[in-house]
Amino acid sequence: xxxxxDQASIKGFLEDTSNLKCGHTPGVFFPETISELSELLRDAxxxxxxxxxxxxxTGTTGGRIPLGDYVISMQKLDRIGExxxxxSDQAYITVQAGVLLDNIQQKVEQNNWFYPxxxxxxxxxxxxxxxxxxxxxxxxKYGATRKHIQRIxxxxxxxxxxxxxxxxxxxxxxxxxxxxxxxxxxxxxxxPQYTMPDTSKHNAGYFSxxxxxxxxxxxxxxxxLGIIAEADLMLLPLPEAIISCLVYFANLDDLFKFTxxxxxxxxxxxxxxxxxxxxxxxxxxxxxxxxxxxxxxxxIYFEQETTPETEExxxxxxxxxxxxxxxxxxxxxxxxDRNEQARLREFRHSLPLLVNDWLSRQNESKISTDMAVPxxxxxELFDFYCTSCRQHGFFYIIFGHIGNAHxxxxxxxxxxxxxxxAKLLYREFISKTLALGGTLSAEHGIGKLKAEYLVEMYxxxxxxxxxxxxxxxxxxxxxxxxxxxxVAYLGNxxx
Length: 495
Prior knowledge:
The protein is α+β, with helices and mostly antiparallel strands. It has helices at 7-11, 34-42, 101-110, 126-131, 139-142, 215-218, 252-263, 279-285, 311-324, 338-360, 378-392, 416-435, 451-473, 487-490; strands at 2-4, 28-30, 51-54, 70-73, 84-87, 90-96, 113-114, 149-155, 161-165, 176-181, 185-190, 227-237, 241-249, 273-278, 298-306, 333-335, 367-368, 396-401, 406-411.
């Protein structure tokens, strides 16, 4: 096993995209096999070590940044298996945790298969996307990562290997799980006793529902219960063709009406992605894309799977709905071939890069939201975002997954006073979101940055439920202490 403790090697593990600057560690371990990873955890208590698990640094919540613990880097566990076809419409592929998502998607698509989860950042490790239950634009149709995982191999904090296929461990009528493990012995615990929000996306805290599968407890647990070392990913046939489009609107009410039509289950148009850009977002993008029309109030980007036989009918239906909603049809951008779709995807992904470039010339970090609410409450939250930011005179943008009632608000402070003021307003956004029945995080997770806010969502009872589950599987608090659960609530580890 490789171990590094020189500052040059450690430095890169003290950061991710969260902008946290407080990371420190005595060293980084690089296990090259799952057996080495198991041995490392088995000896952790004896060696007085705790660990922070490091993905590829693409997270936004500080989850991989160590606060004094050792780091385990997953980058050497990068084996990718061959596709296994189960039928004409189903296949799977076995991968280790350190494989890049982009490499997986390229490999399966070369074989005419399709892995639906599509986070914006393609350089993330697949294990991290499972530990975080990542989603992305295509989650409107396909849901988050959880729905596409058939099996995981988890290394538990005491070194035990837990091989979980769907259906192998299901909570009983009392919500109990029972495990017999070589090192830890017999473990029994009850699923978290709380109710999750009624949102189409939710990524804050441990998953819990009646009759749940144990695999779903580890998916989205942010590495606090065990390390996902290997997984079987379920694949679908690659769509024959795609219609991609960016539709501009001069009026937000028309834009929301169009979005409602796209979401209507009775509609002949069935998008896999529905994304939003507000006027300020488009203002950022116009520096790179001067063809963006003036007089726009916002835009909707969407993708529709189609076939050569149905493409013309799908386009006719689409144009009919655009006209019905007073879209700026002549100025909108239709992409039907691969090259044009690649250009349109580049457009969609250019916004964060342009924002980061702007921020690099400022002295303050952005304040960003990742909240979602039930469908019927979305417009109220959206209007609250806009009105609040305008009242404070903030420079801001709103963009993202409107199909899931989940958009990202980025407040871009121009000085320290605005940053402090925006941080206070963020708490108001949390209160409003929770009052509307929403979730603190829809896709980015909690990590270290948002752990303190999780108490507002679940209250002390909910936090205590998470601690109970964690200590059942990690009694010595070996893994990812500081992530998800506020440290102040954890108390002492088992002695």
